[in-house]
TrEMBL record:
It comes from the Bacteria. It holds the Pfam family FAD_binding_3. Keywords: Monooxygenase, Oxidoreductase. This is FAD-dependent monooxygenase. One of its GO terms (molecular function) is monooxygenase activity. Transmembrane segments: none annotated. It comes from Halobacillus amylolyticus.
Length: 415
């Protein structure tokens, strides 16, 4: 089989790339190993930049209709009290509206729904979009992609081969790039539970030791992310679900009833955060996007967004090559030039967010609380933070910014 661009992996990154290319008249073949929807949790928060990309792909309407709007993130520091309501110590609200853009919110969309929307869009370009379901990419043979679909082996010949297989990537292996991994002192438990219908803001609830992230989904559900010490999942399970119910209820009493919907530990997924970043995004006519190239700490909810943003930039480049009839592989370095620094920046930002929440001492919590509050008090810091996490822009934090957060300098402007 011949195609312009072969994509190994039909996750959010691979599909976004395929839709973009097909919409621009580039013939694309996607090999996806799965046949059915995956039940594994894989991220649901679409940042504003991703919404802008989905808009250009012509699928924003469906995506918005399937999502829950997050216009604000609330950071709530509390004193947890056994058998009593928590005492609020500090509340800071960071608003997406601080970024002057029509994409002024994030969106919580079930991961498989985003993929389905993209697949359906791809199918509207039957001449260019070729999707192989249940097709596992095995590696390269004689410069062609070897794919096993059911029991049949087929070879796909392409001008460019893109590895979008996620964390375990045969394309990355074939490129023989360097990967440096970093692990953390904490893991997360994640589970979706029912929520009251007026519980509709994204919330991070913390004490000196606890962390509970709450991100409302459509249909009165909420994605919850609860921090545990690395390697303690077995112990936590042995303590029983009652302990989990109690922790959730003491941190967020509004979810005291919803959390009891968890009937079995099987519903709770262990999420082990780690990060890596490859040193090369392309070699010859091979390129990597998304988790095949980098994994960020989930704290900032950026992984899926980076994959779609990689796809957007690579797609634009490859479509331009096709349009101008120039060899694809001569221009792949532009993709790396644009994406690598941007991803590195977000990797650092996510790492910093992780550090802010992973030191379980009261003195550290006090520093964190001041730093987050100062981000709200200082107009410029607030805009910088939201611009950076939204993906719509990049504005480096300076030493002066950090001094403001550390309360060495007064905030630049009040709100
Ligand atoms: C537990 C967990 C929680 C996460 N939480 C968040 C979050 O809150 N926010 C966020 O933005 N991101 C989150 N992420 C990260 C996010 O899911 C990824 O960054 C994102 O899905 C990357 O997209 P991708 O397309 O690069 O890879 P993936 O989504 O992993 O897609 C890869 C696809 O390739 C297929 N595949 C793999 N190997 C082959 C092969 N050999 N042949 C054919 N097909 C293959 C897979 O079946 C899959 O469909 C989380 C990830 C995990 C694992």
């Amino acid at each position: 089989m011949k195609t312009d661009v072969f994509i190994a992996g039909g996750g959010v990154g691979g599909l976004a790339l395929a839709v973009k290319l097909a919409s621009r008249g580039v013939h694309v073949t996607v090999a996806e190993q799965l046949v059915k929807k995956s039940s594994a949790y894989k991220g649901e928060l679409l940042q504003p930049k991703t919404l802008a990309i989905l808009d250009r792909l012509g699928v924003l309407g469906e995506t918005e209709a399937s999502g829950h709007v997050i216009d604000q993130l609330r950071f709530l520091e509390i004193k947890r009290q056994s058998g009593a309501l928590p005492e609020e110590i500090n509340l800071t609200e960071l608003n997406y509206s601080r970024v002057a853009s029509s994409y002024d919110h994030a969106l919580m969309v079930p991961h498989e729904t985003t993929k389905e929307i993209l697949r359906e869009k791809g199918a509207t370009y039957p001449e260019y979009f070729h999707y192989l379901s249940g097709a596992r990419f095995l590696g390269f043979e004689n410069g062609q992609a070897k794919v096993r679909q059911q029991k049949t082996i087929q070879y796909v010949e392409a001008h460019v081969y893109v590895g979008a297989e996620g964390r375990s990537s045969p394309t990355r292996d074939a490129m023989n790039v360097r990967v440096k991994r970093q692990d953390y002192n904490h893991h997360f438990l994640t589970v979706t539970i029912p929520r009251p219908s007026d519980f509709n803001k994204g919330k991070i609830i913390t004490t000196a030791r606890d962390f509970l992230g709450l991100f409302p989904l459509p249909d009165d559900e909420v994605r919850t992310v609860f921090l545990i010490k690395a390697g303690t999942f077995k112990q936590v399970k042995e303590q029983g679900l009652e302990q989990l119910y109690q922790a959730y209820s003491e941190l967020e009493p509004e979810l005291a009833q919803g959390v009891r919907a968890i009937e079995d530990w099987k519903a709770v997924q262990l999420m082990i955060p780690f990060t890596y970043h490859v040193d090369r995004y392309y070699k010859g006519n091979l390129a990597l996007i998304g988790d095949a190239a980098h994994t960020v700490h989930p704290m900032a909810g950026e992984g899926m967004n980076l994959a779609i943003q990689d796809a957007d930039v690579l797609g634009e480049l490859l479509a331009w090559c096709k349009q101008n009839d120039v060899p694809y592989h001569d221009h792949l370095h532009y993709y790396e030039d644009v994406r690598k620094p941007r991803v590195k920046f977000l990797l650092n930002l996510s790492h910093l967010s992780a550090m802010v929440y992973s030191v379980p001492y009261t003195w550290w919590r006090n520093i964190r609380m001041r730093a987050v509050q100062r981000m709200y008090d200082d107009d410029q810091l607030h805009v910088k933070q939201m611009l950076n996490i939204s993906g719509l822009g990049k504005w480096n934090f300076t030493l002066f910014d950090r001094a403001i957060q550390g309360v060495s300098f007064p905030p630049a402007a009040g709100q």
